[in-house]
Specification:
Strand content: 15-25%
Largest sheet: 7 strands, parallel
Structural class: alpha/beta
Number of helices: 11
Shape: globular
Helix content: 40-55%
Order of helices and strands: EHEHEHEHHEHEEHEEEHEEHEHH
Oligomer: single chain
Length: about 325
């Protein structure tokens, strides 16, 4: 297949593109290389991908409708994986327009291009942030998610709604994947694992919100991309039992599906810090703070649908995953 991966210089995009290339697929990687975080890290990821003969990189912004249309007209994509997005919950409080431009306008450009160029399957990144104020756990794709607590979560919920409309109107098969706190080598510098590691090694305090009463369903990157790769081959199909009198949010009478990708095991944030301390051989200086706007106290993924439909569910333990991340971090930054 020829597969377009948007956000190919990003954390998940890089790992997925590399896995697909290793499997013998042809991959076109798209990224705008913005400076939301260290561009040199993105360039280093790209350099590794460019070692593959079947990889082609295109520097492009999703919001550039004409350029997106030209790319789809010139190439012939069997599958599109949209991982490009403006990420981050807290950044959305200060720069909401970035989320509208990339996550909403950019996503509609991808939908339109897929519609007009006979793409067989669109898989796109959603987020556990869509569960927002929900407290019924584990979070299931079959429950209502109409109350996101962050602008980032709202933009991802909007993606799911737009995707459903295109699946219904144009029979475009779409699969949304709700990621749960993905971590691992080559991770994002704006996420807790990276921030804590950097601070501990520098003997600087780490900020722990909600006074430490936080739980996250940490999901190791290799498990994440294995799940996505399997979902690429499972083209979304209508649910024959879907009932409009009792509508299932996770499926549809249209070719539309949603899946959680999580470890199905919430971990206390303080336990993560303890594991990091053991791996780094140093104690963290802890600064406990109140809950931040847009944050949620806990996430916990129900992955029964994923296991049933593709025969896989994430299983890497936090201890193993953190050890691999720390090993990569020390090697990459020579520390």
């Amino acid at each position: 297949m020829t597969i377009l991966v948007t956000g190919a210089a990003g954390f998940i995009g890089f790992h997925l593109a590399r896995k697909l290339l290793q499997q013998g697929e042809r991959v076109v990687g798209l990224d705008n290389l913005n400076d939301y975080y260290d561009v040199s890290l993105k360039e280093a990821r790209l350099q590794m991908l460019q070692n593959f003969a079947d990889f082609r990189f295109v520097r492009l912004d999703l919001a550039d409708q004409n350029a997106i249309n030209a790319l789809f007209a010139e190439a012939s994509f069997d599958v599109v994986v949209n991982l490009a997005a403006q990420a981050g919950v807290r950044y959305s409080l200060t720069n909401p327009q970035a989320y509208v431009r990339s996550n909403i306008a950019g996503f509609v450009n991808i939908l339109e291009a897929c519609r007009h160029h006979d793409v067989r399957h669109l898989v796109y990144a959603s987020s556990s942030s869509v569960y927002g104020a929900g407290t019924k756990m584990p979070f299931s794709v079959h429950q209502n998610v109409d109350h996101p607590l962050s602008l980032y979560g709202a933009s991802k919920k909007a993606n799911e709604l737009f995707a459903h409309s295109y699946s219904h109107l144009f029979r475009l098969p779409t699969t949304g994947v709700r990621f749960f706190t993905v971590y691992g080598p080559w991770g994002r510098p704006d996420m807790a694992m990276f921030i804590f590691t950097r601070a501990i090694l520098a003997d600087k305090p780490i900020l722990i919100f909600n006074h430490g009463h936080m739980e996250r369903d940490f999901t190791y990157i290799d498990d994440t991309v294995e799940a996505v790769a399997r979902l690429l081959e499972r083209v979304a199909a209508p649910n024959p039992t879907w009932n409009s009198d009792a509508p299932d949010p996770g499926s549809s009478a249209a070719p539309y599906r949603l899946y959680n990708i999580g470890n199905h095991r919430p971990e206390k944030l303080l336990h993560l810090i303890e594991i990091l301390e053991n791996c780094l051989g140093r104690k963290a200086i802890k600064n406990f703070l109140p809950m931040q706007p847009g944050d949620v106290p806990a996430t916990y993924a129900d992955v029964d649908d994923l296991a049933r439909d593709v025969g896989f569910m994430p299983r890497t333990s936090l201890e193993d995953g953190v050890e691999r991340f720390v090993r990569w971090y020390r090697d990459y930054y020579r520390m």
